[in-house]
Amino acid sequence: MARTSPATTSTRTFPTRDAGGGGTPAGNKWTDWTVLPNDPTDGWTRRNGVYPGTPDAQYCDLAEDGDFLVVDLHGNGSKTTTSTELRMTGNTKKGVFLIRDQPIDVWAASGLARPTGHDFPRTHPEGFLIKLAVEFDTVAISGPASSPSDNGYGNVIQVDAGICVYDADQSGSPAIPANNRNLAGSLMKVTGNPATGGSSRVYKAGYNNYTGVSHVNTIWKSQSGYETTGNDTLVWHCGLQLPKRPALSNYLMSGAISSVNPFGDAMMASYTQSSSSDAFLDSKYLHFYLGFGAFNNAATAGQVRIKSIRYLIQPLVGRIPFVAA
Amino acid sequence: MSLILFETSSSSTAESLAADANTGSLWGVSLGTTTEVSQYSNFVLLELTQTRALSLTNVIPEGVDMSLMDMDPPSFTSADMNGKVWYLRGMS
Fold first, then answer.
1. Of the ranges A23-32, A139-148, A293-302, which is most confident?
2. In chain B, how many domains are there?
3. Can you give the pTM of this predicted structure?
4. Which of A145, A153, B24, B58 lies 20 to 30 Å from B52, alpha-carbon distance?
5. Which residue segment(s) compose the domain that B62 sits in?
6. Is residue A149 within 8 Å of A262, Cβ to Cβ?
7. pLDDT digits (tens, 9 = 90+) for A97-125
8. Mutation test of the interface with chain B: which of A94, A276, A278, A300, choosing the one with the most B Cβ atoms within 10 A?
9. Chain A CB within 8 Å of residue B50 CB
10. Can you give the residue ranges of every domain in chain A?
11. CA A281, A285, A290, A293 torsion: positive or negative?
12. Given an 8 Å threshold on Cβ–Cβ distance, is B67 in contact with A91?
């Protein structure tokens, strides 16, 4: 029996794209970034790392300075009288945490109805890609504001951006997370003057979790010759499937990218988070956070300048259809 | 036990680093008698206590990169299939 195909000249119309993001069935199929405030007092809770005997204000100032969030770590500077450890790697959680007051609700953030039996605060990585991106000033990390060349221009000072995980509702005032309850992308100053140095080891980017840390070299836009191609943003990705075997786990990736070179290389490290130590998906409260400290105990002082903080929760339709809230 | 993976600029530098670690001390940090050392190409892997791992991170010299530190590496049972493959391949 003969089959006929529609003439190629038949007209098709494409639906007009809706303005704005949303990811709801009535809106675009993508979600736009949501910008978080640079004011450390606007919806953020500051928590100081485990640093016995030292009041927080003595070693770290956080303030919005013009368009930037500026973090000044004094370390062994004039405001402290004892040796300072800012280490944020391994089981040592010092430095300063800036944690969003409210937990992430992926369904509400996407304008979607929460399916029956999938109660808050449970997340579903199969259905949502979560990103957190921190764009820095031209010089991301250097020495302290009082003397930028100090501590080797801020050597081993580190910035983390990711999520803190809690078993209980924090009621708008999240505590510093337990030892195995933070997962983050990480940017570290390594060596040289970031404003002039051409080395590939001025900065490193990757991840920093309780269970491990991994960084790869990344060229920054503050370095000579890389003003338009160097990276300027730390980004943390979480998502994909949730495999059950051999252990409940999820896939995370984080590192450095360029906001002005959108198809340039991403310098990333990946990590499979498993239930053995830090599973965060079953009835956990997830809060975005930034961490300011150091890779090891050698750092004494530094400054971090952040231009913007933004997150994205992108719904990915899975085994059940999405329903608008 | 923890794992640290160091990357050096050359295989000879890695061999030298591994030889030093096998003496029981690296960059002034005692590695005791339980630390395991393996080296291939310009990479050196140490399996050691968490305290020693953290001590080493304080004194990594210029020219050596710490590519990875894992404070809670998965067991063979809980490792994914890629992990199992690489573990068994190393035993052949």
1. A139-148
2. 1
3. 0.87
4. A153
5. 2-89
6. no
7. 999 999 999 999 988 999 988 888 888 77
8. A276
9. yes
10. 34-315
11. negative
12. no
